[in-house]
Amino acid sequence: MSAVKGVVVIARNGDRLECYQDPKTYKYGPTESTPFGESQSHKLGTLLRDIYLTGGSDSKIPRISTELVNLKQVHVRVKTGSEGTAVFDSATALLQGLFPPNTKNREQLADGSVVVAPLGGYQYIPVETVEPYNDLSLESWTSCPSFEKHIARVYSSDEFKRKADETRHFLTKLKDFTFGRPTTLENIWNVYDYVNTQLTHNKTYAYRLPPTYVNQVRDLVNWHEDKIFSDSDMNGIGNIAGRTTMHSVLTALERISFDGDPLQVLLIETTYQPMISFFHMTEIAKNYPQLKGLPDYASAIAIEIRAGPAPDQRDFVRVKFRNGTNTDDFETLSVFGHRGDIPLTEFIYRLENSVIDSPYDWGKVCGNNKYGMIEEPATTPEMGIKTIGAELARPSFDLLFGFMLAVIMLFSVYTIGAFIKTRIQARKRIQLPVTAQEVQEGSDLLPTQPHKIVVADYKSVAGRRY
Questions:
Q1: Which of 61, 111, 146, 178 has the greatest number of beta carbons closer than 10 A?
Q2: For residue range 45-54, what is the model confidence (pLDDT) as tens digits?
Q3: Which superkingdom heads the taxonomic lineage of this protein's source (predicted)?
Q4: Residue pair 115/51 in contact by the 8 Å Cβ criterion
Q5: What are phi and psi of 253, to 5 degrees?
């Protein structure tokens, strides 16, 4: 029997059209997936099915439903921030490969007729879309002032300046092939993205580009992105992409390890940034320097939970990696210096203190009060798998605004009502005859005390989180 009890897969999206990223803030522009990229992700899904769902595989998950998906056993988180369309399409294509159409996806109606789902039994698998405006776990580096300072420090470092001097001659020659895009080391991600996109989809461009140029640009972007999305300290801001993603990973591993929990597969479909940080946080990059930098499209990290060999009752972690579609299988990697599998308890222990698991912690690390979190609340919402009880973090702006608007409207109605009442009384005073005796006796027609308007005190909700 296979020792694999379950797996967490972190997958990069497949090929897409050109996407601009601001080199100073890493905010993104629009893009779309391509049929080529969707086929890459589908191929990855098929491979994952062969490994973890197919009978006869050494790594088949024993208890998992292999023909029709059991939604209690499989959970999918999809990033919808930068490259959102391409990431979502890639997740859909991967799931088609993982759980292909099956004619058993049918039902018998009351009249006795049998209906098969469309497209030969297509399996519609719901996914949790992770959007940066209410869940930062899969795109924690944008709108993060501390991360922008980290980028600036990288650009101002002596190492970066030396690299820029070394590559200036090549980047000057590259101008003829970038059509107005700045060929600076700071902008190398956008330069590479353009060159790679054209080389893949534009035959005329592919015929013109000198054969060594793409490799040189690729080496530079690998060096650049590795500097941006890593840190010498596991808890450093450069690792923020991995530190927020790891909350979902560790939570899922704990669930899979617990025999009473049905979860057996977590798929996180995302972009390349968390993968770079993960390799550094787990010390994989030390032993595999070739993995520093951009993983190819449709790359995947598989983090397996494995039962220990008898009589050991512990669960172990095995990390595998497949760099795009250029290889046929996953390569097993050494984690934290372990030559073999690492105990799950050690894996969690070494990573858990670096994890950013709430928007409050993200705000402290990034120096951004995005959610109005002035003080830490008694209960902190988590960033992670929604279906296990961790509610998505939502900003409290709507509640605060609605509460203040209600107070203002109440105050306005009260004031207008008092004004109208005073005017009506004044008209009555003018119309009614008043005798001199009534005035002398202190008639109550005129108020002797000024009106006092009291507004109820309320407590600010700026510190609350949802």
A1: 61
A2: 999 999 999 9
A3: Eukaryota
A4: no
A5: -60, -40
Phi, psi of 230 (to 5 degrees): -145, 175
What's this model's pTM, rounded to 2 decimal places?
0.81
Helices (H) and strands (E) in the chain, counts: 15, 10
Rounded CA gap, 279 and 319, in Å? Answer: 10
Strand (E) or helix (H) holding 450: none
Which CATH number is 4-141+231-352's, of 3.30.70.100, 3.30.70.120, 1.10.760.10, 3.40.50.1240?
A: 3.40.50.1240
pLDDT, tens digit, 9 for 90 and up, residues 101-147: 999 999 999 999 999 999 999 999 999 999 888 888 999 999 999 99
DSSP secondary structure string for all residues of 254-297: HHHHSTT----EEEEEE-SHHHHHHHHHTTHHHH-GGGSSPPPT
Q: Which residue do the tokens 């405006």 mark?
A: 133
Q: How far is CA 451 from CA 30, 446, 447, 454, in A?
A: 59, 12, 9, 10
Mean pLDDT of 392-405: 46
Sole residue written with tokens 């923020």:
240
Residues 350-385 have pLDDT tens digits of 999 999 999 989 999 999 876 554 355 555 566 766
Residue 399 neighbours by CB distance under 10 Å: 15
Strand, coil or helix: 110: coil
Token pair of 212 as six digits:
């060594």
Q: What is the pLDDT of residue 383?
A: 72
Name 342's Cβ contacts closer than 8 Å, sequence gap at least 6. Answer: 316, 317, 335, 336
